[in-house]
Design goal:
heterodimer, B: alpha+beta, five-stranded antiparallel sheet, 30% strand, elongated
Chain lengths: 79, 367
Amino acid sequence: LPVFQDGRRQNVETAWKYLEKYYNLGKDMQAKNVNAKEVMAEKLREMQQLFGLKVTGNSDPETLRAMRKPRCGVPDVAP
Amino acid sequence: YAITHNNPRWTKTHLTYSILNYTPYLPRAVVEDAIERAFRVWSDVTPLTFERVFDEEGDIVFSFHRGDHGDSKPFDGSIYHFAHAFLPGPGLGGNVHYDLDQKWTDNNENFNLFYVTAHELGHSLGLSHSNDEEALMFPSYTWGNKDFVLNQDDINRIQALYGPSPNPIQPTGSTPNPCNSGLTFDAMTTYRGDVIFFKDRFYFRVISFLPEPLINPIDLIWPNLPGKFDAAYEASMVDELRFFKGNKVWAVREKSVLRGFPRDIHSFFGFPSDVTHIDAAVCEEKTGKTYFFVDHMYWRYDENTRSMDPGYPRLTAEDFPGINDKVDDVFQKGGNFYFFHQSIQHRFNLHTRRIDDSGDSRTWFNC
């Protein structure tokens, strides 16, 4: 999953789980035949836009910090 | 993100609700009151009315569950999924589920049951998450030590579904816009070359090479600080920011509040006990002297000896000619102090000891 700047496993898992839970990452991965990097970056950009963060498509520290905050279990995008 | 996918909404305006079970952390009456107040958040701004039923399942059912509870959204006891709700519709539709393993409170500790219920009810009525950090429907849990009011973004979106209420309440503002005329700030400080303006729960960070300020919730960087500071300043010789609220001071380095803080300003700086708050503060880089402004007076503190200079307080206008009003905020940029009173700023030249420019505070935001 080459979109991660620092590559720490923990960050990769945090971002992956978050995007699966709240941005339909898993389903979109199956539905689209593009590679992980593009889908991942697209989902990260969606999340960064919703949270008012710098839209980079990367899991920068500010994005990971937002992902680690307590939140509602309802997804951020429609199924 | 405005209205949920294919726009589900209730086709009736009178809805019933029932409570299936309770959390062990709160008395039943407190749970029932929290749910009632959460419904009022939405009935205040729409024609919707809600009624609790006892001998049957309501349109909306509230229940607490542990782990997998058969709705394809299992709880895991983590803070990343403390509750969820279902969009309007029959059966499961509209229902609100709380994680039984979370600590539910009726105060500022995580998680406030009223606040979470008001958010989840937004989903039960057809709303999805908002991208306005100040909105109730923002995905992250943002309850803070503030009186809760529904913000404009939430009001607009629920009224797009159900129309206005016969007794509309005054909407609140959403995320503050730095270009609004007359905007005033709680505190200002430099920080490693940038200038940061604080307003309510937000900061505006002015970075010289960016065309617009970065606007974010304060707790995105400093989750352990209170909102609505009185003052802030940068002690660059020790790479610290210091925040003031009432008679307390928080010392911060990068994202962390330093151990032992907050401290009271009397023991930490040596203020007399009758000083109950700070209006504004700035540290002059060259001398290491920090100026604290309180009403129309100021104190001077030596960061090197960590003691108040003798002979203070003095009248601000005496040593800063032209600064006659109470100082709301101040910071240093180059060889100048920028003094702010309400939405006006004065540039005070530290060398000539005179005001050499004045204007609207918005000049920093490239409006």
